[in-house]
Description:
Elements lengths: L6 H24 L6 H15 L2 E2 L11 E5 L2 E3 L13 E10 L2 E10 L5 H19 L7 H14 L3 E2 L5 E3 L6 E5 L16 E4 L2 E3 L5 E3 L6 E3 L5 E3 L2 E6 L2 E4 L8
Antiparallel strand pairs: 1-4, 2-4, 3-12, 4-5, 6-10, 7-8, 9-14, 10-13, 11-12, 14-15
Helix pairs in contact: 1-2, 3-4
The chain binds 2-amino-4-trifluoromethylsulfanyl-butyric acid and cobalt (II) ion.
The site of cobalt (II) ion has 6 residues, from strand 4 and strand 5.
Amino acid sequence: MIVVKTKEEIEKMQISADMLVNIHKGIKEMIKPGITTMEIEDFVNSYLKERGGVAEQIGYHGYEYAICASVNDEICHGFPRNEPLKNGDLVTIDMVVSLDGWMADSAWSYAVGEVSDEVKKLMEVTKKSLYLGIEQAQVGNRLGDIGHAIQSYVEGQGYSVVRDFVGHGIGRDMHEDPQVLHYGTPGRGLRLEEGMTLTIEPMVNVGDYKLTIDEDGWTARTIDGSLSCQYEHTLAITKDGPVVLTEQGEGY
Ligand code: MF3
Ligand code: CO
């Protein structure tokens, strides 16, 4: 069931999204060779605690951390750990924040120190694919328009789009209907309406889109060991176009 939100409800989601944006800005300052993703986990937990925000991922299907931290060939759902990040690493930090029961979800990929040109290109293509998807999130368009915009661009750049994880509705629940596929056929799928709040969160691999899950039951990594990158925003569909609630001020 799709839960359409009122303007007032979207304003509440904007408040939790603002907190999430500020956390990502803090993380951006922290990321450098030598830092551990467990230090980022600790930063996020104390930031939220001080401000009455809730780390929604903790306890979600038994997940134990506020953040997912996925490094290099890890696609998503990596655990934060005590191992220092190295110069040249690519790390994606994903989290869901709630305030007064209203949620926002955003993942961002960060370059650790000086990264290779390959990593830079992967990051640019992945971020651009997210914004091309967002551009299609218009009243009257269909979900397939979003998926197609992402997939056609990414594959045109020689990369692949992960199939096994998708975007989703979000609001008072972390995962609401509909599922938002990052691939698809233009003109197909659910018609988008004013008041829908969705995440778009393409995961882009340099190699094959297929993945394996580690023995921890969570960490998804590329089947061929190739690099993977992800950017995710929470957005609201309005009659004036998509509003990116988790925008960090960069746009694309
Ligand atoms: N933030 C994730 C998403 O984009 C959900 C992570 S799964 C969890 O949908 F178990 F870690 F919470
Ligand atoms: Co997320």
